[in-house]
Amino acid sequence: MAVKTWLKITLVVVALGMLGMCAIAGAGIYFVSKHVQTTRVSSSSAIKQFDDALARFKDQKPLIEIDSHERVRRTRNAADMPTAASKATHFVIKAWDPDEGRIVNLTIPIWIMAMGRRKVDLGTGHDTFDLDRLDLDFKEIERIGPVLLLDVHTRSGERVLIWTE
To answer: 0.85 exceeded by the pTM?
Structure first.
């Protein structure tokens, strides 16, 4: 009789564990579906989307520049910038791949980015870009409010725009 009880307890624990794993996987799929959008667009439509995104920043220079040798350079220090009336809530990445004719839009809540260093690679193969290279302090980025962080044009035609809103 004691064996039956232990068997039932073991089966319940295993079932709950599997149910928990399914819930975590479902939450991950839901998060990605709500925060990542990929669309196929023409080159002219991609240019318009980037221009529209940049319009909100008027003549503002990005906080970070990447030169032709892929060296990261800060144009301004976020710590020296004034605190905004409204904090930034989302970290937004817009990336254009002309070879595949698609734009990827990624929106991540800043609180997730601020949780700690996470390796986030954009791209695949030799064309990857690790966001960790930008050495962003997300608490400072949140404090200064909506800001243009990066606008990169590569030699092969790709473009990446990163901002907060």
So the answer is: no
In 3D, which of 74, 94, 89, 70 has the Cα closest to residue 155?
A: 70
- Read off the tokens for 79: 């710590």
Q: Where are the beta strands (DSSP E) in the chain?
A: 36-40, 64-66, 72-74, 90-97, 102-109, 121-122, 129-130, 148-153, 159-164
Strand-pairing partners, residue 93, are 106, 162
Domain definitions of the chain by residue range: 1-35, 41-164
Residue pLDDT, tens place only, 111-143:
887 776 555 555 544 555 667 777 788 888 899
Cβ pair 141, 78 in contact under 8 A: yes
Q: Are 119 and 134 in contact (CB under 8 A)?
A: no
**Helix, strand, or coil (residue 110):** helix
Q: What is the pLDDT of residues 94-110, one digit of tens each?
A: 999 999 999 999 998 88
